Amino acid sequence: MVNQIPVPQAKYELLTDVRQPRWRTQVLCLALVSLILGVLFVTRAWLGIVILRSPGAKALDTETLTDDAKIATWLRRARMYAESTKENQNADRNNSISSPQHNNTNSSGQIIVCYYTISSDLNTFWELSPSHIDPDLCTHIIVGFAGVVNCSLDLGSNSSIYEEVIALKKLQPQLRVMISAGGSNELHLGFSEMVKNHANRKRFIRSVLNVTKTFGFDGLDLDWEFPAWLGADEREKLHFVQLLEELRREFYRATKTLILSVAVAAPQAIVDQSYMVAEMAKYVDFVNLMSYDYHFYVWYYPITGLNAPLFSHAAESGYLSTLNVNYSVHYWLSKGMPREKLIVGIPTYGHNYRLDNPQNHDLLAPANGFGELGKMGFVSYPTVCEFLQNGAKSVFEHESKVPYAYKDREWISYDDVKSVCNKAEWIRANNFGGAMILSLNVDDWNNTCKFNESFPLTRTVSKILRYQVD
Q1: Distance CA 455, CA 464 (A)
Q2: Are 111 and 86 in contact (CB under 8 A)?
């Protein structure tokens, strides 16, 4: 009996001596793995920031891109939309904001707002001469982009082009031509300085009245992307409403009552940060909802996505399920913008990606950069048509109601006649204010897609909303 007592005690001590070092080793290994992963994550994030903030990247944004007004404007907005997704993709959002579709149709007051963008060079394929614009396509043409310099509206050296667009009113007297301030020119932060105080805003309004009277514009569109966003002064949101109120007051006093519109963001995060929607609604005639650029290649979210889906699809959840036209429109309604003042944006360009693996070409496929076609991820509709004519396969995503196409490593999300038809019918059925086209320049104005049919996307929207063609 005496000899039996130490035996189990010895076994217990032996097991304890063996297990304790293994436990400590496991903890140490886990700590080392966590440290390595943390270092890799921080290094990747740091490299991304260095690239974005490097002199080369800065020069690309502020110098190279300003030579092409469209790319500068669109690339900047697409990056900010992507940033809003990055900050909010894990948030628990209520995505049940949408309401049932209205079945009654009364679109007599619906409008077609078309952006026409000016660049410094009219010799590139993307550039559309004012003389080639069909004046019967749109109810409103907004010409952009004028700058805000020294708290004044600055047309730069493009006066003759503005005059040519305004001359289209001689061919179609009911056409309204407006001027847009902002866009790519916001690289110079003209709005932020101008809205700071009443004196600056008064100076800007005086210049607007002078320009509209001199050239014969029918109104002003403000394309500030975006007030109080990404570290800007939070008071800009209030100052922007003050600007709209003061513009409206002076526009009513003008000899000819002028139209006032605002180009506004679609993602919920930017809407919440940048706009006092109900207050804005008191002063604007309508808002042009930039319901596109929902998905765009960025290094921290390197998978294919749809540029302007009408609805979400089953694979999306949380904040990602809010990145579609239907959600954005109903979110603006819920914030206080009247239905008849909501003009829903429809893009005539697509976004492209370079696939990691050409055999994996579905939605949400891994990508490692922009595609080869187009410019900096943006592809005009004629280029998409050529892509399809050269053997690319098109897939229509039935949940989201938009197509994408692929061939080899090239993958493009875009809108075609079928998808814009769906959107226009949805706009008409829900009695929204109308549709906005971005832009005439990148629709197929040169009959590339189909012989003897110019502006097929814009023309489809016009037929449905203005002429009730199904």
Answers
A1: 14
A2: no
Q: Please determine, for residue 39, whether its predicted confidence score (pLDDT) is greater than 80.
A: no
Token pair listed for 461: 């929207």
Q: Which H, E and C letters describe the chain, residue by residue?
A: CHHHCHHHHHHHHHHHHHHHHHHHHHHHHHHHHHHHHHHHHHHHHHHHHHHHHCHHHHHHHHHHHHHCHHHHHHHHHHHHHHHHHHHHCCCCCCCCCCCCCCCCCCCCCCEEEEEEECCCCCCCCCCCCHHHCCCCCCCEEEEEEEEEECCEEECCCCHHHHHHHHHHHHCCCCCEEEEEEEHHHHHHCHHHHHCCCHHHHHHHHHHHHHHHHHHCCCEEEEECCCCCCCCCCCCHHHHHHHHHHHHHHHHHHCCCCCEEEEEEECCHHHHHHHCCHHHHHCCCCEEEEECCCCCCCCCCCCECCCCCCCCCCCCCCHHHHHCCHHHHHHHHHHHCCCHHHEEEEEECEEEEEEECCCCCCCCCCEECCCCCCCECCEEEHHHHHHHHHCCCEEEEECCCCEEEEEECCEEEECCCHHHHHHHHHHHHHCCCCEEEEECHHHCCCCCCCCCCCCCHHHHHHHHHHHCCCC
What local confidence, expressed as pLDDT, does residue 80 receive? 81
| Given the residues 163, 193, 225, 236, the one annotated as active site | 225
Burial class of residue 207, CB neighbours in 10 A (0-12, 13-18, 19+): buried
The strand pairing partners of 154, in sequence order, are 147
pLDDT at 52: 36
- pLDDT value at 275 more than 80: yes
- Active-site residue flag, 225: yes
- Mark residue 342 as left, alpha or beta (left: phi above 0; alpha: psi -120 to 50; beta: remaining): beta
pTM of the model: 0.83
Report d(CA 395, CA 67) in Å as an integer.
34
**Phi then psi for 415, rounded to 5 degrees?**
-110, 140
